[in-house]
Design goal:
- The structure is a homodimer.
- By secondary structure, the first copy, chain A, is of the alpha/beta class.
- Chain A has 2 domains: 121 residues, Rossmann fold, CATH 3.40.50.720; 193 residues, 3-Layer(aba) Sandwich (Rossmann fold).
- In chain A, the strands form 4 sheets. Chain A has a 6-stranded parallel β-sheet with strand order 8-10-7-11-14-15, sandwiched between helices. A 5-stranded parallel β-sheet of chain A has the order 3-2-4-5-6, with helices on both faces.
- The first copy, chain A, is globular.
Chain lengths: 336, 336
């Protein structure tokens, strides 16, 4: 299995961030993987509190922390000068540095020099692993469910993480499989599928959900939309390689057009079901849609319940807002 | 337009090759672009004759040759030690070196050093240009026809080159657009689409066939097959980004299964037409199939004519073997 892997536990690095909105990665890690987040690091006393113990780099080393995760996105998305002393100290202490920034960690000379003297790795979660294979299309053991979308940013990662949590609560054997950078940080492993060279995207998806126990579910984070004028090929490669038994369509209820591609009308949920089934049946003839996950933010409770009931009735499938309802109704259909 | 561009005219480099089958690239260049092939270079007197004047590197420089194209594939697909003196001499003379080998030219220290002292560029046609954009899906001027396939290696490049030649013969305004390494060498420009990072594949295809005159046809080399378990995402990105008005389905008549993926039955021509139309209509609602191009090698003349007549009758579209019939019947449908 050729995927990125992060060492645990984590120190969440927040720099001098004071606003939680800029620290979605750090907050997401604390929400979804609290057991792996041992401490947080702030440059300032007034810095954002994620509810974790505050530690210096030396204390983190002493506490057995293995990875420092940059959990905040600065303006411009790059490394900040004021971060460097602490990051270099961590690398010198043999702690891995993990980031999903626009400029790679390996491009920073001081960090690179420090890491080369120790066992510290600089891990850019936007950089796919090397030597990914071409997709084989060969059937794998275990079961897979993939998040499909009517668009980008339609709740695929949130739905997949919610399903993993709700499935585990019932005692089901399930693991979230991350295909994007934030998901990889949360999962501690994965492949940034959209950064993979096109020839190898189906092969990368095959690596992401390898053979597993017959009762095991890979809950795979989707990417883009099969109807997206920029990213459809990413969605297709992930679909073909994942060979999912089931999929969920994720949708933002208030959206009428592709986000950022305003001349493109959003496909209907029905269109996404039909196209995903058609294409997915190449590598898994039994593929089927098991539910709809909708982001209903901005709706009143009554509007939300009416909307979900309408979609559910029309399609004969459970329709939920995972933020409000959880994903149990979809899991009921999945295991039925 | 962000694509690879080769300087002309060419010296075709054949090393000590004696077998034309190993020099498909060189032979293809001489077949499709004789006006650009000024000379050939052989290390041995008994070397393969492509019908071009033989020149030394010094003579090539004197004759105004701008690019040396490695036109033969060695065993293993890499640079050969015995080639290096001549290649270094060419780089020292300021001649570009162009190759589609498995190991990049830039990885050879002697070549790199020589090229850095002159204006010579080392061009690996397997390496895409940098800074490709994400696909916009915005409608472009001019017209486009794309080769689709039931499989890889089904005659897409040959059909596209044949169509370009036959269209030009009639005075139509047409250009072959190369999406693979051999095609790029023949066209002198293009993008190796399968080597592009997935996020940018539709954007790369948009760069490959930019805005053009209203009467102009881009004849775009296809890649893979929309039904391929390894490469479907490549075919999809190229399709979405090309926004073709028309497409041709290319098929190898004797093949029953995907070449190298023997557990996958070949899709039917009808399935490829339907799926290509469905997906392509996202960026061009007027997309339609205008013909079928079949490789009938191994059939008798009678078998071939019966086969093409059957397909044509069944689908209501022209069906030709471009090696035998040329592509005029498809062009008739295209311009109708």
């Amino acid at each position: 299995m050729n995927i990125l892997k992060l060492k645990t536990p984590y120190l969440i690095f927040l720099g001098s961030e004071e606003n939680k909105l800029n620290a979605k990665t750090g907050a997401g890690l604390v929400e979804w993987r609290p057991e792996l987040c041992k401490a947080q690091f702030n440059l300032t006393e007034s810095g954002l509190d994620l509810g974790l113990p505050r530690m210096s780099i030396a204390q983190a080393k002493e506490a057995g922390i293995k990875s420092l995760i940059i959990g905040t996105a600065s303006i411009g998305g790059g490394l900040q000068d004021e971060w460097m002393d602490a990051l270099v100290e961590a690398a010198q202490a043999g702690i891995d540095i993990v980031a999903g920034l626009h400029n790679p960690l390996n491009g920073n000379a001081a960090l690179k020099a420090a890491s080369e003297k120790t066992s510290s790795s600089l891990i850019d979660v936007r950089t796919p692993p090397e030597n990914l294979p071409v997709g084989t299309g060969i059937k794998r053991t275990g079961k897979r469910i993939l998040m499909a979308g009517t668009d980008c940013v339609s709740g695929k990662k949130f739905t997949a993480l919610s399903m993993e949590r709700d499935m585990k609560k019932r005692g089901l054997n399930a693991d979230f499989r991350a295909s994007g950078q934030t998901g990889i940080m949360i999962a501690g492993s994965g492949i940034p599928i959209d950064a993979v060279v096109s020839d190898f995207i189906a092969g990368a998806a095959e690596q992401l959900s390898p053979d597993n126990a017959d009762d095991h579910w890979d809950v795979i984070e989707g990417q883009g939309s099969i109807f997206h004028p920029g990213y459809a090929a990413v969605s297709m490669g992930l679909l073909i390689g994942s060979q999912p038994d089931a999929f969920v369509v994720c949708h933002h209820a208030s959206r009428s057009h592709m986000d950022g591609w305003e001349s493109y009308i959003l496909p209907t949920i029905e269109q996404v079901i039909e196209r995903t089934t058609d294409i997915g049946s190449l590598t898994n003839p039994n593929i089927k849609c098991v539910g709809i996950s909708v982001n209903t933010s901005g709706m009143s409770e009554q509007q939300r319940e009416d909307y979900c009931a309408d979609v559910s009735k029309k399609l004969g499938l459970p329709c939920i807002d995972p933020h409000v309802h959880g994903t149990d109704k979809i899991i009921d259909t999945l295991v039925a």
